[in-house]
Amino acid sequence: MVIYSKMNTETYNTIPLNLAPLLGALSHPARLQIMLHLSKFNGCQANSISNKLPLAKSTVSEHLNKLKEVGLISCTNEGTCSNYRISEEGYKLLKIYFNEFIGAVEKWQGKQKVCCTEDDNI
Amino acid sequence: MVIYSKMNTETYNTIPLNLAPLLGALSHPARLQIMLHLSKFNGCQANSISNKLPLAKSTVSEHLNKLKEVGLISCTNEGTCSNYRISEEGYKLLKIYFNEFIGAVEKWQGKQKVCCTEDDNI
DNA sequence: ATCATTGTTCGTTTCTTTACGAACATTAAA
DNA sequence: TTTAATGTTCGTAAAGAAACGAACAATGAT
Fold it and tell me: Is the predicted pLDDT of residue A11 greater than 80, yes or no?
């Protein structure tokens, strides 16, 4: 997963830089499905997830890691048993950043300018 | 852009299948930035966008196409001038599907079950 | 009719993602 | 102390994404 926050912030503003990695982590059906599954349980084994997806357990482990990398889920280990769950903080950030994006998109609704000949900053 | 709606719906439910392609299209900072830019204008040239991104115009054209493929933007041509804008329908679907996802995740808040030893369906 | 502008498509390269099974590590049970 | 169960990591292969410049098409201007 590429972390765009290391990119030049003069090129992209903060909304794209914050949001893109989170959306990337969620842009695969299996990972969305994992999020939905984890939302139903207080901690969940990797095994129990991989049993319900048509994917090898190593693949599921990598999907879980991708969600963990961006902070959307967390994991503790108790014995041989893993315990994945949605990270409240990461999940909250997802909603905040997404809503910032939505807010920014809708900010100009009804008062857009014609762009074709103008030179406004992006 | 992979369209997951052709996948087996017995494997993934509709929220992941609907939402994943849209999030994939938005999972790149340049494409998020393009959406923000288009939100400010009633139609915008590809050229004016590519002038404001550190990317070749062919690359921008491909980013625009990726957004178009999933229905988030549309384009008309008037002479040599292109006219990209946010598609109301696609944008609305993005919000609907994303909120469905959020709603599904939060449906079980406060009443989650422990998963480790259970065999619940995903 | 030629030239400039705009935009897309194509070929290529590089890098990333997805997926798998094998191998490995760790803990728990027999 | 083997053996089983759980998970991660590794090597590998295949597919896809990202980026570029060159080439191309189409319209508009000179």
Answer: no
DSSP state of B107: T
CB B110 within 8 A of CB B96: no
Residues 18-47 of A with CB under 7 A from strand D: 45-47
Flag whether residue B5 sits within 8 Å of chain A, measured between CB atoms: no
Strands (E), A5-96: 73-78, 81-86
User: Which is it for strands A73-78 and A81-86: parallel, antiparallel or unpaired?
Assistant: antiparallel
Q: Which one, of A107, A105, A106, A70, lies nearest residue A91 by Cα?
A: A70
- Closest approach of chain A CAs to the CA of B54, in angstroms? 7
- Burial (CB count within 10 angstroms: exposed 0-12, middle 13-18, buried 19+), residue B30: buried
**Percent above pLDDT 70 for chain B:** 84
Looking at per-residue pLDDT, the higher value among B110 and B72 belongs to: B72
pLDDT per residue as tens digits for the range A29-65? 999 999 999 999 878 999 999 998 999 999 999 999 9
Mean pLDDT of B118-122: 48
Domain extents for chain A? 9-107
Provide the CATH number for the domain formed by A9-107 in this structure.
1.10.10.10
